Amino acid sequence: MSSPNFPSPEEIQKRLSEISAMMQRSMPNSSPTAAPSTEETGSVEESPEPVDPFSFSYLPKDIKAHLDRFVIQQDDAKKALSIAVCDHYNHVKFLRKLQQEDPAKAREIEHAKQNIVLLGPTGVGKTYLVKHVAELIGVPFVKADATKFSETGYVGGDVDDVVRELVQRANGDVELAEFGIVYIDEIDKLASSSNAGGRDVSGRGVQSALLKLMEETDVPARNPMDIQAQMQAAFDFQRGGKAKKDTINTGNILFIVSGAFDGLRKHIEKRLMQSTIGFGAETGQTAHDRSVFRKVMTRDFIDCGFEPEFIGRLPVRVVCDPLETDDLYQILKKSEGSVILQYERAFKAYGIELFFDDSALRQIAENASQENTGARGLLTVCEQVLRNFKYELPGSTIHSLHVTPTLVANPAEALGEILEEGKRMQADAQGNVIVEYIHRLAERNGLQLTINPDAVAKIVALANDSARQLRDVCEEIFKDLPYGLKLIQKNTGTSNFVLPVESVPDADKWLSELVVKSYQGASQDTPSAESTDQHP
Fold first, then answer.
1. Is 151 helix (H, G, I), strand (E, B) or coil?
2. Which pTM was predicted?
3. Residue partners of 295: CB distance under 8 A and separation at least 6
C-alpha cells in the first residue's frame, strides 16, 4: 500500500496565499492601501479612552480605598493585594522607562515577580478583588478556570490561550496585553496525589505549563493548532503593511490564582498539631481557628499536591476570611455592588419602586449565611424571596414593594395579601372612572345623577369579563339614559336620580318602565337621591 502524498510546507503556504488572495478580492472596497483593520490597529472606534497603565501612580492606600467601595471586610487581603499590585506596576513603570532610555541596562535588571495566590472559601470576594484592581489600573483582565485546562497536546484548553485572550481584551494591543492580569480560579483542583499512577493530564502537567507562563516565556500570538488563526495570519501577511508582533512575553504579566483549598486545611492543622504536641500544648484551639490559612507554609502546599517550583512562583499569599452574618448584612447595606441595587433596578424597569427595611436586610443576611456560599448566598436568598413578586407584580396596579421581615419569612403569604390589595386598588380606580363618567354625563345633560356602589361593581365585573374598556361598557349601557331621564323629569318634576344595580344588566328595560310610570303619574316611585333603594 503506497503512502499518502502529503503536500510540502511550501505547497501549503502557496495554497494559503492563494486563498487569502481570493478572500481579499471578495472583500468590498479592498485594496493594498486600505486602512488597517480594527485587529491591526488594536483599537475600536468610539470606545472610551482607557486609563494609561504605564503612568501608574497609585499608593497601596488608594487601591484599598477603591476596593473598600465594593468588597466588605477582608482588610488584610485588600492590604496585601494592594501592596503587591503597587510593587508590580511600579516596577513595570520603571522598567518600561528604562527600556526607552537604555535597553541594555534594562535587560540587566532582575526582579522577582510577585505573583499572588488567594486562599479562602467560595463567595468571599476573591474574584471581585482582582476584577476591580484591574479596572482601576486600566489593564486587560482575563479570568479562567483551572479545571478547563490541560497540558498542551491533551484534550482541554491550552494554558497559553489565557495569554492570547489578554490580547483580545486589549483590542489587539500586544504591548498593553503584556502588562495585564491573568486570574485563574479553582487552582486547588490542580493539586494531585504524589502516588497517583500514570501521567497526570489535569494536575501536575498543567502546573508545569502554568509555571512557564508565570516565570517568563514567549507565547505565540496565534494558536498554532487553530486553522482559522493561521489563515488570518496568512491573510494579514498577504495584505502587507506593518508587521505585527507574533509573540507575547509573559515577563510582566501579573498572575493571580485562587481557590478554596479545602484539602489544604487538614495539612496545616496536622503540621500545627505536631508542632504543639508537648508540654502545655493546646491542641484544640488550632483545629477550630477560622484563620488557620494564615499559618500556611510552602510545605503544606507541597503535601497537598502542588509542585515546589509551581508554588514557589506564587510568593504573595493573601487570605480571605469566611463571611459572617454581619458581613453579609454590610455587603447588602454598603457595597456598591450590592445585589439589592440589582433588584432595585430590575423592579424599576417595570415601574415598581423597591424598598427594604434594615431588619429585612438583616433577615436576608441570616438566611444567606446558612447557605455556606458566602456572598453568593445573598443572591440565592433574594431570588427565593422575590422571584414570584417579579413575575406577578409587573403590569399590576402595584407601583411599590416594601420588603419587611414578614415578607422575607413568608413571601407567598405576603404576595397573596399584596395581590388582594392590588385588586382592591384596581377596583377603586375602576370605580372612580365610572363615577366620573356618570358625573360628566349629568353635567352635559343638566341632570343631577349618581350611581349606586353595587351598580359600579356590576359594571366593573362586566368590563373585566369581556376584557373591554370601562367607558365603552358605560357608553353601551347608558346610551339612551339622558333622553329617558329628561322625559321623566318633564313628567314628574324630579331632577335628582340615582342609578341602582338593576339599571346595569338591561338599562333599556329599566328606563322604559320608569318612563311609563312617569306618564301614569307615578312619580312617587321614581328613584331619587332621597330614596336610593326604591325600585320601579
1. coil
2. 0.70
3. 268, 272, 289
